[in-house]
């Protein structure tokens, strides 16, 4: 028998999430972001359920090739563009759309021998200071690209740093509007947070990622609980042992948890080598046999411990959900000081994954 841990993916939730997202931005086309192997879900498992999208966005050439070879014929956007001149052969061969964020990429395009023009997303640095040209140069760079025979369709692109917080998008929108004041081409700006909360950013194409998978861009499940977005991944396991502690007994590596009185503790077949965060503190929520309880002690490589005080009926073999339908990944992430993005995309390859239509 395999270890009892597994992940299930709800394909109907994926399709429904995409439909809900279209409802938020009915006049925009959608780049469904599937970078990091579909935020840990596995591109090859999920892409067909998302095939009503207008395009897929990612940044790894291997993932782009995988999608093409799996049969996706629509647009594919490389969010970080090409990394070397040789990459342009792959861009051409697989008909990819590429971001352009640096002068060397323009020079490389200008010198490239390519049979078909490449569609380009010109990236503006509107304040995040990761990738892109300064707003003041954008008009000139657009013109420079427009004049290259190697360049096909041109789109203006930028990315928001604080669309999920009270700071919002106003300062970055002002920079983008300045950058694009003499540019009449299409625009692509909105990540998940901007898609949900800043309709003025929607324009021609949106780029939702995390909400496709039913987790919150703010890290707070309550922020999306009313939208109808559904968790796609459920990570589950079972109790493989139960310990009866007495006052003063300790649990796990470092003996960091001390029982203050008699206490039943369950041992779950799930650890950090499965993708569960090692830094999850005592008190991280976990669902055991129908009850929301908490972890106790340090997470091991292959196991973690849970408090069974609230579930006296739980025994060896009882079901455990680490996150998913009963327990939003956002709630687990919040307890760990991170986001659902990190937990989902860190799912370990050793965890068997199955898909369901429910
Ligand atoms: C990851 C990413 C997205 C999607 O972000 P979410 O917050 O998951 O919606 C959009 N655009 C770019 C450039 C990205 O890198």
From TrEMBL:
| GO MF terms held by the record | alanine racemase activity
Catalytic residues?
A: 35 (proton acceptor), 253 (proton acceptor)
The organism sits in which domain of life? Bacteria
- Which pathway does the database say it acts in? Amino-acid biosynthesis; D-alanine biosynthesis; D-alanine from L-alanine: step 1/1
Query: What PROSITE patterns is this protein classified in?
Result: ALANINE_RACEMASE
Q: List the Pfam families hit by this protein, alphabetically.
A: Ala_racemase_C, Ala_racemase_N
Residues that, per the record, bind substrate: 130, 301
The reply to whether Isomerase figures as a keyword in the UniProt entry is yes
Q: Where is the Alanine racemase C-terminal domain?
A: 232-356
What Enzyme Commission number(s) appear in the record? Answer: 5.1.1.1
Catalytic function, reaction form: L-alanine = D-alanine
Q: Which residues carry this modification: N6-(pyridoxal phosphate)lysine?
A: 35
Requisite cofactors: pyridoxal 5'-phosphate
Tell me if Thylakoid is a UniProt keyword of this record.
Answer: no
- Could you tell me which InterPro entries the record lists for this protein? Ala_racemase (IPR000821), Ala_racemase_C (IPR011079), Ala_racemase_N (IPR001608), Ala_racemase_pyridoxalP-BS (IPR020622)
Keyword set, alphabetical order: Isomerase, Pyridoxal phosphate
The UniProt entry's sequence similarity note says: Belongs to the alanine racemase family.
Question: Briefly, what is this protein's role?
Answer: Catalyzes the interconversion of L-alanine and D-alanine. May also act on other amino acids.
Its recorded name reads: Alanine racemase
Protein's organism: Rahnella ecdela
């Amino acid at each position: 028998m395999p270890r009892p841990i597994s992940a299930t993916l709800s394909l109907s939730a994926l399709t429904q999430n995409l439909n809900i997202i279209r409802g938020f931005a009915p006049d925009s086309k959608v780049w469904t972001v599937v970078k990091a192997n579909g935020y840990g879900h596995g591109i090859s498992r999920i892409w067909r359920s998302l095939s009503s999208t207008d395009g897929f966005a990612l940044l790894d050439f291997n993932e782009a090739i995988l999608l093409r070879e799996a049969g996706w014929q629509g647009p594919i956007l490389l969010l970080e563009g090409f990394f070397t001149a040789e990459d342009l052969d792959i861009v051409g061969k697989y008909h990819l759309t590429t971001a352009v964020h640096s002068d060397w990429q323009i020079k490389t395009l200008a010198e490239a021998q390519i049979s078909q023009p490449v569609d380009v997303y010109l990236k503006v640095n509107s304040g995040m200071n990761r990738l892109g040209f300064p707003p003041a140069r954008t008009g000139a760079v657009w013109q420079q690209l427009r004049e290259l025979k190697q360049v096909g369709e041109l789109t203006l692109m930028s990315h928001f740093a604080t669309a999920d917080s009270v700071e919002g998008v106003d300062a970055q929108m002002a920079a983008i509007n300045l950058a694009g004041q003499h540019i009449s081409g299409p625009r692509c700006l909105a990540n998940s947070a901007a898609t949900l909360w800043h309709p003025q950013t929607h324009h021609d194409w949106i780029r939702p990622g995390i909400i496709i998978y039913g987790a919150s861009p703010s890290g707070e499940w309550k922020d999306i609980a009313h939208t109808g977005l559904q968790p796609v991944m459920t990570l589950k396991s079972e109790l493989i042992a139960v310990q009866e502690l007495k006052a003063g007994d300790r649990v796990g590596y470092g003996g960091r948890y001390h029982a203050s009185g008699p206490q039943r503790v369950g041992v779950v077949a799930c650890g950090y080598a499965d993708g569960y965060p090692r830094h999850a503190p005592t008190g991280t929520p976990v669902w055991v046999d129908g009850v929301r309880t908490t972890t106790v002690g340090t997470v091991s490589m292959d196991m973690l411990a849970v408090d069974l005080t609230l579930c006296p009926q739980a025994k060896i073999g009882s079901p455990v959900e680490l996150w998913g339908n009963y327990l939003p990944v956002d709630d687990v992430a919040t307890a760990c000081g991170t986001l659902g993005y990190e937990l989902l995309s860190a799912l370990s390859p050793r965890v068997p994954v199955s898909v369901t239509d429910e």
